[in-house]
Amino acid sequence: MSEQKHLIKNIFSLGIVQVANYVLPLISIPIVVRIIGPDSFGVINYYSSFVAYFMLLINYGFDYSGTRFIAIERDNAEKRNLHFTKVLYAKSILFAVSTLIFFGALTFVSHSYNESKVAIYTFLIAISWVITPNWFYQGMQKLTQVALFNFLSKLLFNVLIVVIIRQKSYYIWQPLILSLSQILVSAISLQYAIRHFKIKLLKVPFKTVLDLLWEDRMIFFSMLATNLYTDTNIVILGFYETKEHIGYFTAAWRLMFVFLVLLSLPTSQAMFPYIAESFSKNINKGIEQIKRMLPIVIYASLGFSAVLYLAANLIIHGFYGKNFDATVVIFRILTIVPVLSFINTVLGLQTMVNLKMDKAYFTIVFSGGLFSVIFNIIIINFYGYVGCAWSWIIAETLIALVLNRYLSKKGYKLFVPGYFNPLAIADEMKTLIVNFKKGRSAKISNNNQSV
């Protein structure tokens, strides 16, 4: 009862504040995009995708491996302090490596002085990824803090964007504003985590940090493989299409990501430490939790995707304006992404990783990513940015099918027909709600007694 109540509270609190996080861009982005146009918007998003490789390297999958460790050891202050220190040092080392590679590659990808400035300003956000302790908050199941600090950074960014971006040539300041606001809030978040949880940074040997990187390498490789069919699509697109066409594609891609975050990420971030803890106690318990939750979120995401598909024309024109007519067809293609993304997250990161199937997970995702890269190079030649959108869908679908096939062969069948019955889902939802209400009433009663 307590665990279910805590899960619902995490999903609810993170979901509500995440809505606030992503409602703000719905106000600022339409204003800015109408000023800078599809071509400048394409430049910003192109270098954002390029810098995403370095963000991936710095983060190194700690949002999952670090979260998993803290979720299991959150009552052990000594182990928490040691792991927190190792992750911070590891990210610092990876940042140094990323900086060297970034400036070495910049001369090959930048085509003008302004584009170089956009790239550098975008890369500065890497500093925030070094110091942010979001992975630690998730492991401690303190998701309200994660959402709060995210909200502050988005609020600061959007206010500054609306005030500063007044003409087309000012588009270069957008990534700088984003990076500086994120760095500031991440620094505050780090300081709060250290003080609130009484974290002590320890002296750890360099070899210990390298050992951590080696242990978590498969999760990093899996995240890198995922990047092959997301951000890499945009980088490949940049070799064949104009920045304006990149703008059309990334307009749909970015907006779909907003809706994906609104639906999938709050649930996934709340579920992961909860499921990780269940797996640490009993594998069967963890599997059972996934079986029961999977149908609920799949049905919800399918309904959400259907609404987005039907309202695509209204959403794109209302959000970006008439200059982005070409974005509507891309957006409609991508409306199935929330469903596929959630399925792959549950099957891979929340099931296979917790079952220590890291290598198998990496192999499957990497194969899917490699297929996506090759398929993209071929299909973009014929269908341009529309083909790029279909490539993403096809890659996600193939990965989902192979992940499910692999788990089934290992004896873990997560898609149980009986659990997808609407009556079974209704009963499960009622159980969760009743337990949540009981837990809430007991908490209020205890508080009254203490007073």
From TrEMBL:
Subcellular location per the Swiss-Prot or TrEMBL entry: Cell membrane
GO cellular component: plasma membrane
Membrane topology, record value: Multi-pass membrane protein
Ranges annotated as spanning the membrane: 12-37, 43-62, 88-106, 118-137, 146-165, 171-194, 219-240, 252-275, 296-320, 326-349, 361-383, 389-407
Major localization listed first in the record, in broad terms: membrane
Keywords of this entry: Cell membrane, Membrane, Transmembrane, Transmembrane helix
Protein name (record): Flippase
Lineage, uppermost ranks: Bacteria, Pseudomonadati, Bacteroidota, Sphingobacteriia, Sphingobacteriales
